[in-house]
Structures are given as C-alpha cells and as structure tokens.
Description:
It is a single chain. The protein is of the alpha+beta class. The protein folds into two domains: 3-71, no CATH class; 72-213, Jelly Rolls (Sandwich), CATH 2.60.120. Helices cover 15% and strands 31% of the residues. It has four helices and 14 strands. Helix 2 runs antiparallel to helix 3 (57-66). The structure holds fe (ii) ion (FE2). Residues 113, 115, 120, 160, 167 line the site of fe (ii) ion. Its EC number is 1.13.11.20. Keywords: Dioxygenase, Iron, Metal-binding, Oxidoreductase, Thioether bond. Pfam families: CDO_I.
Amino acid sequence: MSATVCQYHPEVNNNDDDDYSEIQLYKQMGGQLPIINNLQDLINQLRVIFESDNVNIELVNYVMNSYKSNPLDWKKYAKFDRYRYTRNLVDTGNGKYNLIALCWGEGHGSSIHDHSNSHCFMKILQGSLDEIKFAWPKEKGQQLEEIERKKIELNQVAYMNDSLGLHRVENSSNVDTAISLHLYCPPYNKCKVFNQNTGQTSSSTVTFYSTFGKRIKENKEIIEPEDN
Ligand SMILES: [Fe+2]
C-alpha cells in the first residue's frame, strides 16, 4: 500500500492473535519478514522500508509491533518536563519520516489534533496511554463528537490518520509516567488543534524538547539533559 495516499484503515494489530494480516504480509514478502531485536534494528529496518517510493505501510506496522520495548534502548530519549509532555526526536529517516519519543508525565495529555495528512503510528514503550477519537466537525461552533475511546498498553501499536478523524492522547495515570514512540510519515511541523466545545481550530507548530538524545532550548542552545 502506498504511503502517498493517507487512506489506510488497518485492523489495528493490538492482538498477538491477529495472525491473518501477518500471514498475508509473510506471503507478500516472499517468506522473509524482518527480525527486530532492539530499537536500533527497528530504526535500521524502517530506513530500509522507506527507501522504496511505494512504502509498504503494513510492513511498517509489523516492524513497529515486532519491537519489544527495552528501557536500555531508549533511556537517552526519555526526557520529561514537569508541566507537559515532551517530544524527543529519535530519527529523521532520511527526511521521509520522523521517529519521536513522547514522554508523558502523570496526568499529561495532548490537545485534540489532526495529523496533516500523514500516517501516524504510536507504540507504547512504557506505561499506557488513553486515545480518545473524535469526528471531524461538521458545522462551525459545534461540540466535537467523541467516536472511540481505548487504552493502549505496553508494546501495543495504534494507528491514526486524518481519514479516521481527530484524536487526543493522555496519560490518565496519577502515579506512572508513560513513553510512546511515534512514527509520522511524511514528517510535518504544523498541525491543527481543536477546541472540543466549539470545534474551533488553530495551527500548532511541532517542536522538539530534545533531538538525538540532546536537550535543546528555544534558542537552539544545547544543554545537558536535566533528567533521564
Ligand atoms: Fe496524534
């Protein structure tokens, strides 16, 4: 399936027993599926997959699912802020996608947002996250309609694109932090955020708290990580 048209509607592979699509993929790949033992394997495989102009999105989903979270792999990206969740750039995939670790403190959540016509995969590396989906607003001034609510647990992968609606993600735990690994393809630096009560939109710029394990400030000054 092409990554250029954002109409992918997967049977979300949150269940290990969802064998059917894996068998189909196995046949499609000529009996060879990548083996992912650690985060570096995942990064390397994603780079290989995205070398193609016609990216196999099912294969992206497969490798994201295959990786089993190990804190030793990602602790250098795990940088938290007391007040809001942080985005920490892991890899830019030769400009074709962004791989980002999002670190959620207790009770932290996102605003309701779209995905700028990109694919979004979200894998849980630590803790769990709630995803609340909304329909696109039909009329101005209308409250956004909630259409789905689910918890995404450790190592599960959720998928989202604009044809599936809008969503908000939150760490509803009062005691545990959460970390998620997001793949956005193509990468984007602006998205729309929505007011739940009025449907009103505004533009939001995607910023990074750290890149490649190094903390950055607004003025681009690189400083030492504050916490890991
Ligand atoms: Fe999102």
